[in-house]
Structures are given as structure tokens and as C-alpha cells.
Write a structure and sequence with these properties.
about 900 residues; mainly alpha; about 5% strand; Sig_transdc_resp-reg_C-effctor; nucleotide-binding; AAA_16
Length: about 900
């Protein structure tokens, strides 16, 4: 392939194609101003790839399209839809619903995985080029999928190639492309070569004037080379300050001005109906009194062509110039005519909306129905756009406020947080009906629950809102939000908490099963609960109808169990959430549940299981834009890595957590990050720093309670035993209400470490008794370590060896290397020879990555690759790759051997 003046870019694309052929796929974004030669460059690359055996898939953006979403994705994947049966069931359904089938819409992550899976299937039969032209004009749902794919192409023999204008690059999308290829204006020599090729009859002075006027823009050079005005006219400094796109549009308009009036109107029909078939365009034109012959002069001029049942402009700038320079009345007539003939109802509504110049309730109602239908297909960005357009056409203030609230909720669901916040601000002063007021507050609260962009309402504001409502369901729900804020932010005063409790206990308020469940959760979160509902009780209320806010309510129930020091109960709630939201295709809610379960598992020292949850949660949160959830997962990952002595990985995870947390990290995230920082400091012998970090973790008591179990050890080593008093008082009070054996062990162990040497034994022995009745094996092992150290100092060598040997076995089994090293040193000081471990016995958790271990465990349980793909949000071929890697590391060669190979794996 060869394009004048683009030799380096051609070489780069050639290298990327060759790498793709060899299995090293990639993605590239070609960008530059209008007319700079993007299409010429990628067309040359695609032609070269096609002639050398690459299969080519393509789609292109068209200005003004994207009414219902995924139109571009359908165009791109249409040649592959016969392979859809190869996808896992969830991914296949997600794609079918996106393309209009009945069913529950999936998060865009699942739809993206389905598209990725189809590309993998195609690439398995030969190298692949995926061409996406004019990314800036694609429907947003497709553009989201394209950028999702761009980050994942490395695993297949394929190159994803996209073009966009440099002033339209989406800042949250372009970084996902592996390579960025900017196109700058041509240099003078290359510009002269291009002019000589297209207009050999021009004299040298004429070519030079044209090159000066075109400023290196290839489209301007080729278009203007036949124009006397551009060839012979002098270049103007004033013209040079006008954007090239506008100058090119003006030159196209000059051509259009030479056409008959009927042809100019025919061109406007084509411009307004670029997503319409030629039959629809011609029929709409006849409705305006035009004939097919009126299109002929534009075809003769080469401004439009007819092919593949649609009209195409010579360049997109022709269409934009024609449309933008038509007056609004004429455009309205054209859209009205198109609306009457286009077959697709959604596009017809869009044309009717474009034809309206003022308020129109009928069209607004149609747009509302379109928004609802579009949302059901999972195209939430397009749904939000339809809601916003409906708002603009709504004459009645009350109805306009209602639709603005719904637009805000649609924008929230689409991940457009800034848009949602702006719409909420616009709706708040005029929202009048109770349903809108509650929905506005609900959207606001849910935004504040997953993002640091919007501050949520204070507890007193939520109490006032509850009192103003008439529906008991809404009253209890709003009060529950206040309790949730109290728990997550730790910023409600005792007086506000008491007021929430008083409101919740008003006679006759909580009479239905749902109201009682919410009240129980809310009272538990503010420390006023008589009892917690069981997991089974909660699910019996929530399962029949899973509402949008139920995920948060389930989260709060899990928090309430954790606050009651029942980590096992909390894990059961989180696991129930993972299953419930996975089945109902609510990936975002499932990701939150994975993060919650991972955190609880870490607190319970189920390190491998917690790490698998948090790594999956971090991966999914990045794809779904859930920064707070990602921050929580990263902090928990840092804690696990620090326990394992993987200090560089722990530090990197802390950095990720800080970056995702923003300026106001949630108290829970900050507490876990402080705990991880304390473990890192302890690993490095910085005991004073460890004390400081553990004291910070106590600012969030549910986390600080467990983190503080290690405070006495580092505080004594730092010479600051008095620093333990606050935690000991908090833990003793919590123990009085919970009776937790694990907590009792930590309290007794702390007292032992703070006791004079002669009084420590009784506390240590009681701690071990409590620990043996709990499932906290790592905390028990730590207790044995500390006791063994004390015993050795007291010269009880044989007794010390027994406790230290038992502790070392647990630490090695759980890969907690710093504690294992400390215990081994202590054993050596006690004169014990460390037993040699059998070289044939090894722990799979030590050789597999967290994701490989997760995949291998599911495979050992009998799940197929497709079922695992659905469970972990991977493609089935990626699952196969993980299994292949696991087989090699475990030194096995078939699935049936996984159970025995994993038998030695410890948490």
C-alpha cells in the first residue's frame, strides 16, 4: 500500500498487520482534521490486508444516527451472526437483546464480551481486520463496545483500526487504543506531488498557489485542483485562520450552489436521511414534490453516489455543509417527509422530533416510549438522549420535571454521571409530584453511593423528606438511606441517628414484609436493632421483585452482619447477592457484591478466595466505571499482597486505590487502605508507622475492630503500648454484645501482649481456647506465634516449639511469607530444625494466578468453559487459555486431574 506523504504511518500499519497475522493483535486510532486523509490511509491498509488473506469487518458512523443504539455494532457483526451459537448463553442473549430480541437487557460489559467472543471465533479461522470509520459519529453504545474491544485485541490475530477527528476524540475512550496515529498536514513537497498526480495540467506557479491555499490538507488539494478560484486566487491570511473543515464545506457549498434548486433540495433529503435506504429517500423526496431525475445533476457532479441501496456523499463534509446551511423551516419539512416514509419506528420518531421547532407533547410522548424501549435493549446512553429530547419538547412544567428526573436516572444508568448531576439540578426546583420527588432523591442517593462526584443529602434532609411523603414504602426507604449514610460516611450525629430510629419506630409505619426488612436493616446500621433479619428472610422479601435499590439494601444487610461481628453471616449475604444479581444480569450490582464479599473474606483471612473476588471486582469495576468499588477492591488486594509479603504489588494496589478514591475516599476504603499500609510498614520493620496506620483504620470501626487485632504487637515493639487502649476499649464493648470467639481471642491476646511477663500465660491460653472454637486459623496461628515467642523468652523451649511449629504450618499453607519467616527465625532460636517439605507436595495457590485458580476450581466442579465464561465475564476462549496455562503449571494434562491437583490448595 502507498499513500503520498504518509510513508511512516503506512509502515506502522503494515507492521501492525504483520504482527496481527502472527497472532499479536492490536488496535490503532487514526485521527486528524476533516479531509486530512484518514479514510485514504486506512482504506489502503485494509485493501492490502484483504488481498493478503485477512477477513475484513467494518462499520462506519453517520452523522445524526443512533436513535436506538447498537446500529453500528449490528453492521459490524452481521457477517458473523451465524457463529452466535458458539457464544456462552448469557453473552448470546445479551447480543440478541441488543439487536432487538425480547429479553432482559445486559450491562454493556456482557454485550462487549459477546462481540469480543464473535471476533475470537472469526479470528480462529484466519487473521482479521476490524475497520471502524468515523468513530465520533457512531451511536454511543457501539462506540463504547469498540473501545472495549480496542483494549483486548492482543489475544487474537486481529487489528482493530478506527478513525476519528482530532477535535472529537473522547478522552475516556482513546486511551484504550494501543496505538495512536495522528495525521498532520502534508509538507510542501508531498503536497506538490499530490497536486501533480491529480492535476498534471496545472503550471508550477498554479500548483504552488494551490498548495499555499490548501495548507497541506489532502482533500482541499484534490478538490480545489479543478477550481479556477482556488488555483488562481491569492491565499489570504484571514482565510488561513478559518478552520479547514469550514473552508472545505464552503467550497462544497459553492459546487452545490451551481445545481438547480430542486437538486439542492434533493441533496438536503439525502443529508437529513443518511441512515435511510434509497427507496425511503426517494419516497420522501416525492412527498416534497421532487422526482428521481432531480438527483441526477448531483450524481453528475460527483457529489453523491448510489450503491448498496443507499445514497452516499463524496465526503461527509458535503452532507454536513448541505444540512447545516439549510434554513430551519426547510429542514423541518424534509424531516416531516422522511418521518412519514421511513420503515423503522424509532427513526421515524427521531425525524418527527427533528421537525419540531417548539413544544409538542405528542412527539414528546413518542420519545418517552422510545426511551423506555431503547433502555430495554441495554442502549442506556441512547435512552438518556431520547429522554432529554422529550424534555425539550414538553410544554407542561410538571411533566417536564418528571421527564427530566427520568432523564437523570437514564444518564446514571448509562454511566454519564456529570450529565445525571446536571439534570438533577435542573429538575430539583420544579419536581412536584411525589413519585418524581422520590425518584429524584433515589437517583441522587445512588449516584452518591458509587461516585464521589455528587454529595448526597444529609441525614436531617432525608428525615424531612420522609416526613413529607405519604407512601409508607417511600418513607421507610428514605429513612434507610439516612441509615446507610450514617454507616458508610460515619458522619451522622447521635441526635440524627436517634431521630431516624424514632421515625422508623412510629406505630403503623413498617407493616409489610418489605417495610419490616428495611426497618431492620436501617436500625442495625445505626446501632438500634433488636435483631438482624436472616439471609433467607431477606431473600424471601426481595426475590419476587428485584428493584433498582435492592442491591444497596442487600449491601446494607451484609454491612449490618459485619457490624454485629458476624463475618460468616455477612459472607452469606454477599454470596446470595452475587448469585441473585448474576442471574438477573445486573453486572454492576454483582461487581459491588464481589467487592463486599472479597473484603469480608479478607477480614476472615480467607485470603485466596478474597483475592479472587477482589481481582475480579477490580477488573469489572474498570469496565463498568465503578471507581469507588474499584478503590475498595484495590485496597483489599493491597492487604492480601502485604500479608503475603508481596510488597511491591501491595504498594501498586494502594496507588490504584488512592487514584480511584478521588479527593474524598469512603471511610471503608480508607480504613482498609490504612490496614494494608500498616501491614507493609510491619513487613519493613517500621513499627511506629504501623501503629499510626492501624489507629487510622479505627476511624471506621467495622474494619478497625479487626485491623486493631494486630495493634498490640507493633505498639509494644514501637514502645507505645498506651496506643492500644482505644482499640481495647472498643473491642471489649463489642465483645460484650456479640460473644464472638474470634474477637475474644484478639482481646485476650492483646491483654497478654500488654501484661507483665508473669501474667501473660493465662491470657494467651484463654486466647487459644477461644481461637480453637473459631474459624480464624490465621489469627489463631498469630496467637500461637506470639505465645511461642513469650514461652521461648521464659525458657519454656519445648512448649514454645509446639506452638511455633503449628503456627509455621498455617503461615506456609496460606503463603503469608513475612509471618512464616518470623516464625521460622523464632523456631531456629528455640533450637528446632525445620522439617524438609516433600518436593512432590505443593500448593496450587502458590503457582497459579488468582484468576487461573478461580477458573481451575470451577472447571474441577464440573462447569464447562462456556459456563465459566458466563460466571467470570470472560470469553470461553480466554477461559480455555487460563486452563491451558493452569495445566502446565500444575503439571497435568486433562480436566479430570484438576480435583486432585487442587486438593492441597489453602485459603
Amino acid at each position: 500500500m502507498y499513500v503520498i506523504g504518509r510513508e511512516s504511518q503506512v509502515d506502522q500499519l503494515s507492521a501492525l498487520l504483520e504482527a496481527a497475522r502472527e497472532g499479536r493483535g492490536s488496535s490503532a486510532l487514526v485521527y486528524g482534521e476533516a479531509g486530512i486523509g484518514k479514510s485514504s490511509l486506512v482504506s489502503a491498509a485494509v485493501d492490502a490486508a484483504s488481498s493478503s488473506g485477512f477477513q475484513v469487518l467494518s462499520c462506519h458512523g453517520i452523522r445524526g444516527t443512533g436513535a436506538v443504539g447498537y446500529e453500528g455494532l449490528h453492521e459490524l457483526l452481521l457477517p458473523l451472526l451465524h457463529r452466535v451459537e458458539a457464544l456462552s448463553p448469557r453473552q448470546r442473549t445479551a447480543l440478541e437483546v441488543a439487536f432487538g430480541a425480547e429479553g432482559e437487557p445486559a450491562d454493556r460489559l456482557v454485550t462487549g464480551l459477546a462481540a469480543f467472543g464473535l471476533l475470537e471465533e472469526a479470528a480462529a479461522h484466519g487473521p482479521l481486520v476490524v475497520l471502524v470509520e468515523d468513530l465520533h459519529w457512531l451511536d454511543v453504545s457501539t462506540a463504547d463496545i469498540v473501545t472495549f474491544l480496542a483494549a483486548r485485541m492482543s489475544v487474537m490475530p486481529a487489528l482493530l483500526l478506527a478513525t476519528t477527528r482530532d477535535d472529537r476524540i473522547y478522552p475516556d475512550r482513546s486511551p484504550r487504543f494501543k496505538h495512536h496515529i495522528p495525521l498532520d498536514p502534508l509538507g510542501q513537497d508531498d503536497a506538490l506531488r499530490l497536486v501533480a498526480l491529480h492535476a498534471p495540467a496545472l503550471t508550477v506557479p498554479q500548483r504552488q498557489r494551490l498548495v499555499e491555499r490548501a495548507m497541506g490538507n489532502p482533500l482541499a488539494l484534490t478538490e480545489w485542483s479543478t477550481s479556477t478560484a482556488h488555483v488562481d486566487g491569492a491565499a489570504s491570511a484571514e482565510r488561513g485562520r478559518v478552520p479547514m473543515g469550514k473552508r472545505l464545506e464552503d467550497s462544497f457549498l459553492a459546487e452545490v450552489a451551481l445545481l438547480p434548486p430542486a437538486t439542492r433540495q434533493a441533496l438536503l433529503v439525502v443529508a437529513a436521511g443518511q441512515d435511510s435506504s434509497s427507496h425511503e429517500v426517494l419516497t420522501a423526496a416525492r412527498g416534497l414534490g421532487l422526482e428521481q431525475s432531480d438527483f441526477a445533476p448531483a450524481e453528475t457532479f460527483g457529489l453523491i453516489t448510489l450503491g448498496n441501496d443507499s445514497f452516499r456523499f463524496r465526503h461527509p463534509l458535503v452532507g454536513s455543509a448541505v444540512y447545516d446551511n439549510a434554513d430551519s423551516h426547510v429542514r423541518s419539512q424534509v424531516h416531516t417527509s422522511l418521518a412519514a416514509v421511513v420503515v423503522d419506528p424509532a427513526r421515524a420518531v427521531q425525524h418527527r422530533a427533528a421537525a419540531v421547532t417548539g413544544w409538542d407533547e405528542n412527539v414528546a410522548a413518542e420519545l418517552e416510549r422510545l426511551a423506555v424501549a431503547t433502555g430495554r435493549r441495554g442502549a442506556r446512553t441512547e435512552a438518556a438522549a431520547a429522554w432529554r429530547r422529550a424534555v425539550a419538547l414538553t410544554p407542561a412544567p410538571r411533566e417536564r420535571a418528571r421527564r427530566t428526573v427520568m432523564a437523570a436516572e437514564a444518564a446514571r444508568q448509562a454511566g454519564a454521571t456529570a450529565d445525571a448531576v446536571a439534570l438533577l439540578a435542573r429538575a430539583r426546583p420544579s419536581a412536584a409530584d411525589e413519585a418524581s420527588v422520590v425518584q429524584l432523591a433515589r437517583t441522587e442517593w445512588m449516584l452518591a453511593s458509587t461516585s464521589t462526584t455528587l454529595p448526597d443529602r444529609g441525614g436531617d434532609e432525608l428525615i424531612a423528606l420522609s416526613r413529607a411523603l405519604s407512601d409508607p414504602d417511600d418513607q421507610v426507604e428514605v429513612l434507610t438511606w439516612a441509615a446507610v449514610r450514617s454507616y458508610t460516611r460515619q458522619d451522622l450525629s447521635t441526635e440524627v441517628k436517634a431521630a431516624v430510629a424514632e421515625e422508623l419506630r412510629r406505630p403503623g409505619l413498617a407493616v409489610t414484609g418489605r417495610q419490616r426488612l428495611l426497618r431492620s436493616i436501617a436500625l442495625a446500621l445505626i446501632g438500634s436493632a433488636d435483631r438482624l433479619p436472616s439471609v433467607e428472610e431477606a431473600l424471601s422479601v426481595l426475590r419476587p421483585q428485584v428493584r433498582e435499590t435492592d442491591a444497596t439494601l442487600m449491601n446494607c444487610l451484609a454491612f449490618a452482619f459485619e457490624d454485629a461481628h458476624d463475618l460468616e453471616g455477612a459472607e452469606r449475604v454477599w454470596s446470595a447477592e452475587v448469585d441473585l444479581f448474576h442471574r438477573s444480569a445486573r453486572t454492576s450490582d454483582e461487581t459491588v457484591a464481589l467487592a463486599g464479599r472479597g473484603t469480608v473474606r479478607m477480614n476472615a483471612h480467607a485470603i485466596a478466595a478474597g483475592l479472587a473476588d477482589c481481582e475480579q471486582g477490580l477488573r469489572l469495576s474498570a469496565d463498568l466505571g465503578l471507581s469507588v468499588v474499584g478503590a475498595l477492591c484495590a485496597a483489599s488486594i493491597a492487604l492480601a499482597r502485604a500479608w503475603r509479603g508481596e510488597d511491591s504489588l501491595a504498594t501498586a494496589a494502594l496507588g490504584t486505590s488512592t487514584e480511584l478514591s478521588g479527593l474524598a475516599p469512603f471511610a471503608r476504603v480508607a480504613a482498609i487502605a490504612s490496614w494494608a499500609s500498616a501491614e507493609l510498614a510491619a513487613n519493613e520493620g517500621r513499627h511506629e508507622d504501623a501503629v499510626v496506620h492501624l489507629l487510622r483504620s479505627m476511624e471506621h470501626p467495622p474494619i478497625g475492630l479487626w485491623a486493631g487485632g494486630g495493634l498490640a504487637d507493633v505498639a509494644v515493639r514501637a514502645g507505645r503500648p498506651e496506643a492500644v487502649e482505644g482499640w481495647l476499649g472498643m473491642a471489649t464493648a463489642a465483645l460484650a454484645s456479640s460473644g464472638s470467639d474470634r474477637l475474644a481471642m484478639l482481646v485476650e491476646r492483646t491483654r497478654a501482649l500488654l501484661s507483665p511477663d508473669g501474667g501473660a500465660r493465662d491470657h494467651f491460653e484463654r486466647a487459644i481456647e477461644h481461637g480453637e472454637r473459631s474459624s480464624a486459623v490465621l489469627d489463631l496461628a498469630r496467637t500461637r506465634l506470639f505465645f511461642g515467642e513469650w514461652l521461648r523468652r521464659e525458657r519454656h523451649i519445648m512448649e514454645a516449639r509446639g506452638h511455633l511449629s503449628a503456627a509455621l504450618h498455617v503461615f506456609e499453607s496460606h503463603h503469608t511469607a513475612p509471618l512464616a519467616r518470623r516464625t521460622a527465625r523464632e523456631l531456629a532460636a528455640a533450637g528446632s530444625v525445620r522439617p524438609t517439605r516433600s518436593p512432590q507436595v505443593f500448593d496450587a495457590g502458590a503457582v497459579l494466578t488468582a484468576q487461573e485458580l478461580h477458573v481451575a476450581r470451577l472447571a474441577a466442579e464440573g462447569y464447562s468453559n462456556k459456563q465459566i465464561a458466563d460466571q467470570l465475564y470472560l470469553s470461553h476462549r480466554t477461559v480455555g487459555a487460563h486452563l491451558y496455562s493452569a495445566y502446565a503449571k500444575l503439571q497435568i494434562n486433562r480436566r479430570a486431574q484438576l480435583t486432585s491437583a487442587l486438593a492441597a490448595t489453602h485459603d
